[in-house]
Design goal:
about 90 residues, alpha+beta, Arc Repressor Mutant, subunit A, three-stranded antiparallel sheet, two-stranded antiparallel ribbon, 3 helices
Length: about 90
């Protein structure tokens, strides 16, 4: 279960390429393609270095007009899915 203080980092061997506002990715480990929308792409970019859900939320709140609870909930969904398919690791 993800918490606000878990450290999140990208998994290596993920090839990513921007397409307009989105990001197309391929996992070399499981030979699968993924697509991220504009917000997912921004989260991926922020994960260039390890982050917590709190720090991701802090950064996204600077760029999007959304309340903290909604931002946190949406990040939790996206990061949980990224973890499920093997794009990020949670410590």
């Amino acid at each position: 279960m993800l918490t606000a203080q878990n450290m999140i980092k990208r998994i290596e061997n993920i090839i990513a390429s921007p397409m307009d506002d989105e990001l197309v990715m391929m996992s070399m480990e499981n030979n699968a393609y993924y697509g991220l929308n504009k917000v997912g792409r921004k989260i991926w970019e922020l994960l260039e270095s390890e982050q917590t859900l709190d720090t991701l939320c802090d950064e996204l709140l600077k760029q999007y007009d959304v309340d903290r609870a909604t931002c946190y909930r949406d990040i939790l969904v996206i990061v949980s899915k990224m973890e499920e398919v093997g794009l990020v690791a949670v410590e």
